Amino acid sequence: MKKYLMAGVALVSMALSVGVHAQTPGVTTDSIKIGAHGPITGPAAYIGLAGRDGMLLAMKEINAAGGVNGKKLVAVFEDDGHSPTKALAAAKKLVEQDRVFAVLGVGGSNATVGAVDYLKGKGTVYYVSIASAPPVTWPFSRNMFRGGTTESARYGELYAEFLVSRFKAKRIAIMSGREEYPRNEGDATADKMKNWFQMAPAVRVEFNIGDKDFTPQLIEVQKANPEVIAFFGNPAEAAIAMRQAKELGLKQPFFVGSNMVDPALITAGKSATEGVTGFSLIPYLPGSRAADMVKWEAAWKKEYPNAPAGRPNNFDILAYGDTYVLAEAMRRAGNDLTTEGLIKALEGMQNYRVGPIATSRSFSTKHHIGNLSLVPMLVKDGQWEPVDWSSSRPSDILSRYN
After folding, report:
1. Which of 30, 26, 103, 123 is closest to 71 using CA atoms?
2. Is residue 169 classed as helix, strand or coil in its secondary structure?
3. Do 243 and 272 contact (CB within 8 A), yes or no?
4. pLDDT, tens digit (0-9, with 9 covering 90-100), for 163-195
5. Which residues, other chains included, contact 371 with Cβ-Cβ below 8 Å and sequence gap of 6+?
6. What is the pLDDT of residue 402?
7. Hey, what domains does the chain have and what are their CATH numbers?
8. How many Å apart are CA 156 and CA 98, to the nearest integer?
């Protein structure tokens, strides 16, 4: 009797074990289902299309090399239309219908903020590659991670210091879009100008995504007579504003947010972009003659031979690198993949990167901001080139997490 009882206990125990494993969403014996969202329609489609393609290229390479511990990566992608409402709907579908294991965010901040609270509540790992919106990593939540991008507060630190020290500026104009991402960058820059340098913007003007006429804002900037103009928006808007600034006789240099440090800005703005500065989230931009970038672009173009002009862009590279980060963390988490195992593996990653085309990612149990390093760039002779400048001030960001 005792023998049969023990056998029964063993069978129940084994059944429970199998049941627990089966309840891990998106994980089977031979595959791992990863959800992702970004805008592939609308004014920010240049972000989401690139994010999707960079992610899929990385997954194809990873699967060709044997997958993650023998499991193939499977992608489910949703268009968020750069809308917080659509991003929330996308996140709900990915988690509740598609039952993905984790969600990779390759959209902008405007949409991403719509999905944050839902995914926090569900406990699903949300790894954000591109959006800098503060709610992703502050307040701290164990299942929320930020990859190749950085928090908007860090943008503010670097931007303010660069504007003041490189341009020796005492009068700085800020032109920022009204949506989430550019507004956050403008706010963060103004905040650090005030707290670090006891300086207020000479003028701050706003615009809407998709605007074609910046004359009213530029006239206000002209009246303020700044030494430099900081512009936070999208490449299409920046290119128009720069051309119109020259037509109005403004000779001040432009500084742009990191999403515009991309060949697409030069393509759109042509000579009006000469001398523009900004910070890049990646060491080399597409079109660079660096051997590693040439090799990567060749692989990308082989995969996407009919891609439109301006691709690949920096968002392709960000999503590509972060897909490898996520895959490496899953590999370290082991065969019995769980959400808790993935979180612990990510928190143990230090200075990991797929190669020289990407910046490194480091996380800890106290903070989940993977990247705090940006590369200053300048448009010279129609090309983005690195600027010989480095920050001399320690970041205030991580002190919040201690």
Report:
1. 30
2. coil
3. yes
4. 999 999 999 999 999 999 999 999 999 999 999
5. 146, 147, 148, 149, 150, 281, 359, 360, 361, 362
6. 75
7. 25-150+290-371 (3.40.50.2300), 153-280+376-401 (3.40.50.2300)
8. 37
